[in-house]
Amino acid sequence: MKKAIITGLFLSGLNNVNAQQSIPLYQGKAPGSENWTYSEKETDSDLFKTHLVYNVAAPAIEIYAAPKAKANGTVIIIAPGGGFQSLSINKEGRDLAKVLQEKGITAVVLKYRLLETRTGDPAREMMENIKDRPAFDAKTAPIKVMAGNDIKTAIAYLRKNAGKLNINPAKLGVIGFSAGASVILESVLHSEEASTIPDFAASIYGGPSDAVLGYPVPGQKLPLFICAADDDPLKLAPKSVLLYTKWHDAQQPVELHIYEKGGHGFGMGKQEIPVDQWSEVYLDWLKFHKFL
Q1: d(CA 11, CA 17)
Q2: Per-residue DSSP letters for 233-246?
């Protein structure tokens, strides 16, 4: 990756269950956002009823290393959602990372670059912003490119340091939730270098744009898992069907699950309905493809 180098920081103590260390993705300012002056913050959102990270200007990865006794070599990068205004860091990030870690998979939570939140309440600011959808899309367009570069940088770093991290560079997957699904598709569909294309992927209630859906499917085998809820208030379930069709038509391995109820942003939460089991189904899919 051009200028996209993570160097020298190392990962002591990561073989303890749930241990994690944050590793910056770039030396100095991230390329393309050198003039950003805001800094990362966290908050509990009463509107979204979850913990959020926002104002990410210095992208990083949190590594949850699989215990040596259980490690199977697989590594999965998790991209939480939040409309490019925040990251649902627990329900769509760390909670899944800990489940994967317990199963012997090294999990990596990606903190990609976000729009600046000026009010201290990223959830309400985003809901206000999307009232003018064209203006919001124009604001997020360059952020999506930067976030795509962030996940490609993370993939390149993990493959370069596979030996030190006790992972197999040929068993590297990505999973994204909502906006994070668009981020992971930037690596799947829009990588210029083979080193930044993952080996398998998952899109959870994603809403890929027409532009992203227009990118060609990679020529190499790349299994895809897709999950959404039919009652998603953002009406994104049909986008999951379009993504499924794209993979199906390319004769690529693909699996689609549309739950009747679940809404948007269900993540690792529990609603006492069938959608609660989606992560177990995902683990079964990983096992079927010999990544677990």
Answers
A1: 14
A2: TT--HHHHHHHHHH
| Angle at which helices 95-102 and 278-288 cross, to 10° | 40
Estimate to the nearest angstrom the gap between the alpha carbon of 125 and the chain centroid: 22
Instruction: Find the length of the chain.
Output: 292
Over the stretch 203-260, which tens digit does the pLDDT of each residue have? 999 999 898 899 999 999 999 999 999 999 999 999 999 999 999 999 999 999 999 9
- Reduced to 3 states (helix: H, G, I; strand: E, B; else coil), residue 202 is strand
Site of tokens 């860091």: 89
Cα–Cα distance for residue pair 201/115, rounded to 1 Å: 25
100 Cβ contact list (under 8 Å, min separation 6):
64, 66, 76, 106, 107
- Where do we find the tokens 């367009």? 141
Amino acid present at 228: A
CB 74 within 8 A of CB 291: yes
50-54 and 75-79: which strand pairing?
Answer: unpaired
Judge whether residue 26 has pLDDT over 90. Answer: yes
Which string of DSSP letters, residue by residue, matches 39-79?
A: --EEEEETTTTEEEEE---S-EEEEEPPPTTT--S-EEEEE
Per residue in 189-217, pLDDT (tens digit) is: 999 999 999 999 999 999 998 988 999 99
Going by C-beta distance under 8 Å and a sequence separation of 6 or more, which residues neighbour residue 188? 174, 197, 198, 201, 218, 222, 224
The per-residue pLDDT for 247 is 98
Q: What whole-number distance in Å separates Cα of residue 238 and Cα of residue 124?
A: 26
DSSP element (H, E) containing 275? none
* The dihedral sign for the CA sequence 160, 13, 94, 67: positive
Q: Is the pLDDT of residue 12 over 70?
A: no
The end-to-end CA distance of the chain, in Å, is 29
Measured CA to CA in angstroms, residue 216 lies from 79, 186, 188 at distances of 22, 11, 10
